């Protein structure tokens, strides 16, 4: 495979009828910029890792994911399954086409500006970025691990992700499903008995939600960057009802860390000794709830990512 040929994985958005038109708009920009590429399209979320692995094994040195945070997460995990020599020879890029696209927005990629995105990608400016890693045991006691680019959510935020997936099947709208999920959680909020070990400190109390961010974490870790070898951690204790509304405003306005119920940390490792019944989400997608204690760490500068000029 020639080094300048891209392997493109197109992941259509769920529920979007004009999937072909979306690809045609991007295709026009690729052709205008003289990009040589081969495209494969995912049928569902389960096919993403298989297709990315196929692109890697066929020798593509530039792999572009047209998708959201979850699809990019799958691609990063595929790269981490390869030998270091193979992984370091591949550059991973992104055209945002998901529900939230938080990692893309961290770098300044615009969901609606394919021309700018393609122009930036053709410059082939790479940066080695960090990955977080969660290591846990499944319900059968088998050790598992999963890498993440953006964040891990434990508790209420993961609940909202779960509700959002369920309500979207009914409402067929990303925005409506998100808003309805947040409202439901505001009026049926719950906290969880957790025990966390972070920076030689033990946090042992009832907690509403935890976000471990390698990047912005959907606004919950706004100071995190995926290139300093550290993870940002926010622990949110159970706020009063009116504090929840003020917290949502601070989240939207980028001042989430100013809320009185939010307690921030910066660390290389978090040990979750206990988090009873708390769901866990990684880059916007739920994983099976871990059994027993689990650990979240960071691996510094392990994949090449295409960034803007």
Structure description:
Helices cover about 30% and strands about 35% of the residues. It has helices at about 20-30, 50-55, 70-80, 85-90, 100-105, 115-120, 155-170, 175-185, 240-250; strands spanning about 5-10, 35-40, 60-65, 90-95, 125-135, 145-150, 150-155, 190-200, 200-205, 210-215, 230-235, 260-265, 270-275, 280, 285, 295-305. A hairpin with a 2-residue loop joins strand 14 and strand 15. The chain is elongated and about 55 Å long. Residues about 165-185 have low confidence and may be disordered.
Annotation keywords:
6-stranded antiparallel beta sheet; 9 helices; 10-stranded mixed beta sheet; alpha+beta; 16 strands; elongated
Number of discrete helical segments: 9
Helix content: 25-40%
Largest sheet: 10 strands, mixed
Q: Give the overall form.
A: elongated
Radius of gyration: 19 Å
State the distance separating the first and last CA atoms.
Answer: 26 Å
Number of strands: 16
Ranges where pLDDT stays below 50 over 5 or more residues in a row are: 167-185
Pairing-aware structural class of the strands and helices?
Answer: alpha+beta
Q: Residue-averaged pLDDT, rounded?
A: 86
Quaternary: single chain
Strand content: 25-35%
Order of helices and strands: EHEHEHHEHHEEEHHEEEEHEEEEE
